[in-house]
Amino acid sequence: MEPVNKVIQDLSIKSLDSTFNKLSNAYKSMTEKGSNTSLVQKRLNAVCGFCI
Fold first, then answer.
1. Fewer CB near the terminus (10 Å): N or C of the chain?
2. What is the dihedral of CA 42, 47, 49, 52, to 10 degrees?
3. If you average pLDDT over residues 32-38, what whole number do you get?
4. DSSP annotation of 42
5. What's the pTM?
6. Which of helix, strand or coil describes residue 22?
7. What CA–CA distance (Å, rounded) separates 49 from 29?
8. Rounded to whole angstroms, how far apart are CA atoms 38 and 30?
């Protein structure tokens, strides 16, 4: 496996962090409204399996 450039690593981490934050906010909002959160939960598990 080839080493990954530091800039690419940083951009990838920022992207994952942004995705996680958006999904977390969506989950919180949907939970407060009483909406079905199964799709958001599945996506959160795909991004961060131990978060929920």
1. N
2. -60
3. 96
4. H
5. 0.80
6. helix
7. 20
8. 10
Calculate what percentage of the chain has a pLDDT beyond 90: 75
Tokens of 40: 């958001």
Q: Are 27 and 44 in contact (CB under 8 A)?
A: yes
Q: Where are the domains of the chain?
A: 6-47
- Residues 20-34: tens digit of each pLDDT: 999 999 999 999 999
Buried b (16+ CB within 10 A) or exposed e, 38-47: eebeebbeee
Buried b (16+ CB within 10 A) or exposed e, 25-37: ebbeebeeeeeeb
Taking phi over 0 as left and psi of -120 to 50 as alpha, with beta for the rest, 34 belongs to: left
